[in-house]
User: Which sequence fits this backbone?
C-alpha cells in the first residue's frame, strides 16, 4: 500500500517562509492534499493538487509536486504565529478514494 | 449549516467495556469516513460508507470494531471488549460523494481512553 513520510518538526521565525516536505511511494497517486490540525480541532483542508499538475498557488500557499521523485512540498510565505499547527500530507492513489496520511509535521513559529 | 459533529468529545472507559461513538455528517453528504488517530500519528482509515452501505471496511483492525449508518446520515462506531490499545482520537469525516476531487470535512473527534 501507499506509504507517506514527513519530517516531524519544523521551526521558523515569524515572517520567514516555511517549507514542509512529504514523500510517497505509489506512482499511481491522483490527488494529493495538505491538511492543517490545530490543538483540539479537526483536520482542515488547506489545499490540494491533482497529479497532472506540478505547481499550485493559493495566496500564501504554494504546492510543488515532483512526480518523478514522488515528492510533495508546501511552502507558506510570510509565516505567522497563527500558522503554528500540525500539517499533514495525504495521498490518494488510483482506484481508491481513501487518502493515506503521513505522520504530520509540527510547525512552530516563533517571534 | 453546521459542520461534522461528533459525540461524545471525550470518553473514558474500562478495559473490556463496550463503547459507541457517534458522528453527525454535513447534511447532504453521502460519503462518511471513520479514522483513528493515535498520538503522534496521522489519521488511519477504518471504514467508509457510501449512503447506508459500508463501501470499504478494510481498515477495521479486527471484529471488535463495527460501524453502522442505517439511514444514510448519522453513523455509529461500535467497539466491543475495549482494550488499552484502542485509546486514540476517533475522527469522522464526510464528503459529497466519490469520484474526482472529493473534499472530506472532518469533525473534531472523540478522544477515547481505555483504562
Assistant:
Amino acid at each position: 500500500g501507499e506509504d507517506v513520510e514527513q519530517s516531524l518538526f519544523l521551526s521558523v521565525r515569524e515572517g520567514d517562509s516555511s517549507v514542509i516536505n512529504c514523500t510517497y511511494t505509489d506512482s499511481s497517486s491522483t490527488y494529493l492534499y495538505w491538511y492543517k490540525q490545530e490543538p483540539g480541532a479537526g483536520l482542515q483542508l488547506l489545499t490540494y493538487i491533482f497529479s497532472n499538475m506540478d505547481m499550485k498557488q493559493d495566496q500564501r500557499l504554494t504546492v510543488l509536486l515532483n512526480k518523478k521523485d514522488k515528492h510533495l512540498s508546501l511552502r507558506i510565505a510570510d509565516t505567522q504565529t497563527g500558522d503554528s499547527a500540525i500539517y499533514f500530507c495525504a495521498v490518494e492513489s488510483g482506484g481508491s478514494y481513501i487518502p493515506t496520511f503521513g505522520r504530520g509535521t509540527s510547525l512552530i513559529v516563533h517571534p | 449549516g453546521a459542520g461534522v459533529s461528533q459525540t461524545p468529545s471525550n470518553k473514558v472507559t474500562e478495559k473490556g467495556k463496550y463503547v459507541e461513538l457517534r458522528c453527525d455528517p454535513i447534511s447532504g453528504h453521502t460519503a462518511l469516513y471513520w479514522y483513528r488517530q493515535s498520538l503522534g500519528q496521522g489519521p488511519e482509515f477504518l471504514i467508509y460508507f457510501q449512503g447506508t452501505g459500508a463501501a470499504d471496511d478494510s481498515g477495521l483492525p479486527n471484529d471488535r470494531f463495527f460501524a453502522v449508518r442505517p439511514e444514510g446520515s448519522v453513523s455509529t462506531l461500535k467497539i466491543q471488549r475495549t482494550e488499552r490499545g484502542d485509546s486514540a482520537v476517533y475522527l469522522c469525516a464526510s464528503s459529497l460523494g466519490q469520484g474526482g476531487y472529493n473534499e472530506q470535512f472532518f469533525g473534531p473527534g472523540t478522544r477515547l481512553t481505555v483504562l
Notes: The longest strand of chain B covers residues 88-95. Chain B has a mean pLDDT of 94. Residues 20 and 78 of chain B are 5 Å apart (CA to CA). The interface with chain A takes residues 3-4, 31, 33, 40-45, 48, 56, 59, 91, 93, 98-99, 101-109 of chain B (CB under 8 Å).
